[in-house]
Design the sequence.
């Protein structure tokens, strides 16, 4: 498991396949996994993943800090999760109805997550957030949903960050406000007038290309208070952060209870699944809407999720990734300080984001991650990263060595 | 593999789990897999599936004619598909980008499907149909989509058949017409005026609770002509029928080429995947929209699909299921004729639908399927059914024996 030590990593096979991909796939690749907007040096394709390591087509190995953009919570190819999947697959994956696991899984997630009296399951995070809007409108008979400007809630027409192909009516019942800004939220509530169905909020402000912000307690309390007063639904979009901040739900430590919570990503350690959990007063509405999908009841994904949730009940995953995240953050801060390089590290340490000061075009950030790729470290220049249970203190030490190398280069270039 | 021979099948474990499910899942179960609207006797949960057989929690075994509502094309737990998945999983399932299989799979589906110059992949059928709308709007700069009344295109707010929680704006850019009715289609085109972005059509009319209709060639040609004339996009929603009518796309035999085609269900023989394929003129628009999902690049689903598509290239799956579908249909017709029971069998034989004459409340249809369940045959009273490569002529013979038993009972009750 030799990490790549060369600065200019070889991506010959990757580049060749990218060329072939241009013929068969529009633009060569779609969605968040396209590397087109990332600086040169990122592989587009991967050939292997195990624990906290990932390999590209050319055999370069990286300590990975993206975790598949979140799903990898326990380590890639976690043996216990894969075993649970294999055992289930010997029986049934997809039938004309779910396996018994759907009930076990619903019970399990309700047991672990605070503010959850019932659960239903889907495939995409977008399925879960969209379903939260539908339940809110069904329950309240109202239309308007308040959304924080710049927050990512999925890629359906109502929430995709790129407006191409989206029509006005897809977003005409959304009212935007600034995350963590009570006055802005209250102005949006005024705009909604008597038609406020709900407020949807990510666990914390994890928009790309800017510092992350944990939610202010007073802001969450205000959102809760408004929903109580206006008979509206408070929705926690925990798709990205779920099970990394607190296994009981990301707002547990803030003492604010959402009415609905959307989970996905880490819920099955990479096996495709999402969930909506909610409080009792929304049970009736949730039973009256119609949402479904051909694969929403794949029993293998439910087996994966049951095992994943069992592991996070037994092992303090949040503690582990917080510890390593803090170690990484402290180390990077010290390196940057010593070298006089201005950086900003923000958000929860287990979901790190490192931005450079005075770097509006991300030119420093891009060089930084390129140096790191050359040393076998996979960072992202403007999207929050993720830690997993499979990352070790030694991984962080190796990473800090590479960070020191990269920061020195950056510091010389600044001067 | 003893089929259940008792009329009153025992569902004690199933009923007990359903009671438990009521506590944890709104209404006990959501979506198309809920048996709440089906007559008494259907198990809600399944414990095992292999080839064309499915087992409920109480150990009752059924010859299954629903195929998981479509995904099971080659037989449940097909050994070759599962092997391909296992081999892929040893390498990588989900990473920070796709595996090389995404390119192989795009090339493969373009090779097999007519009217496909490029492909992209998603998870749900709904992802694929919704993406087709987005691409159509991006390409044309227009808004209106023509949709056949009663057609099922998924469960996002714009297409879900239950309006609860759906707001007016979700459907305000749709214009409805009658499937197979040229005058109705042309009236809808008039309504769209200069704002026609596209026409979406299922492969054939497979709406629930009514006879199925294959598309009239003149109707498809009219839709094609309108789209050509109006610079609009002709969308084939082949999610339900794809790879069962013709491996090259369900309209191949009609000589009408869609601009976009949505696939899902059978594409990976049960592993979660969907696809949008399109013609060159829409490649640019497809590269400019933003659609994505955390699990859209699971390499195991792509391995499953590659193997599934390879098998349908080598084996005449459509021929096999058509042959058995015709055998089943002819046998049922003969039984009904002999007994003087009025029935209607409609649509392609490999996707059978059997309705009773003068049965508006489906009371005969319900009794019929209940008698069949008691004999170990899983039919549906009002949704089209599905055949798979794993069904055998002997399965059909066993089924016809049970149909004769059930029809006799029905005929006595009619008299």
Sequence:
């Amino acid at each position: 498991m030799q990490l790549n030590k060369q600065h200019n990593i070889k991506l010959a096979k990757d580049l060749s396949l990218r060329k072939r991909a241009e013929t068969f796939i529009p633009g060569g690749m779609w969605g968040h996994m396209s590397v087109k907007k990332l600086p040169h040096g990122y592989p587009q394709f991967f050939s292997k993943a195990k624990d906290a390591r990932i390999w590209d087509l050319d055999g370069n190995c990286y300590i990975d800090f993206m975790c598949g953009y979140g799903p990898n919570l326990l380590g890639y190819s976690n043996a216990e999760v894969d075993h649970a999947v294999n055992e289930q697959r010997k029986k049934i994956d997809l039938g004309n109805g779910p396996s018994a696991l759907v009930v076990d899984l619903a019970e399990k997630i309700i047991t672990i997550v605070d503010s959850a009296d019932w659960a239903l399951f889907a495939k995409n995070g977008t399925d879960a957030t969209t379903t939260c809007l539908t339940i809110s409108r069904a329950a309240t008979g109202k239309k308007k949903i308040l959304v924080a400007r710049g927050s990512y809630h999925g890629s359906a027409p109502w929430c995709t960050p790129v407006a191409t192909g989206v029509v006005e009516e897809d977003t005409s019942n959304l009212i935007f406000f600034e995350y963590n800004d009570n006055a802005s939220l209250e102005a949006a509530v005024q705009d909604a007038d008597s038609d406020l169905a709900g407020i949807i909020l990510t666990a914390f402000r994890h928009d790309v290309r800017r510092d992350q912000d944990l939610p202010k307690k007073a802001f969450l309390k205000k959102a809760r208070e408004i929903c109580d007063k206006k008979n509206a639904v408070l929705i926690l979009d925990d798709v990205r952060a779920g099970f990394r901040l607190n296994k009981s739900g990301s707002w547990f430590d803030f003492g604010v209870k959402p009415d609905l919570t959307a989970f996905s990503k880490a819920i099955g350690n990479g096996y495709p699944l999402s969930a909506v959990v909610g409080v009792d007063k929304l049970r009736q509405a949730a039973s009256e809407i119609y949402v479904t999908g051909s694969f929403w009841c794949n029993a293998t994904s439910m087996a994966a999720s049951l095992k994943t949730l069992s592991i996070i009940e037994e092992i303090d995953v949040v503690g582990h990734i917080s510890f390593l995240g803090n170690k990484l953050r402290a180390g990077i801060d010290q390196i940057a300080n010593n070298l006089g390089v201005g950086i900003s590290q923000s958000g929860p340490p287990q979901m790190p984001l490192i931005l450079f000061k005075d770097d509006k075009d991300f030119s420093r950030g891009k060089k930084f991650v390129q140096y790191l790729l050359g040393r076998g470290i996979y960072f992202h220049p403007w999207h929050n990263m993720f830690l997993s249970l499979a990352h070790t203190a030694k991984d962080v030490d190796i990473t800090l060595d590479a960070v020191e190398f990269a920061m020195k280069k950056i510091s010389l270039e600044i001067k």
Notes: Chain B has two domains: 12-76+317-414, 79-314.
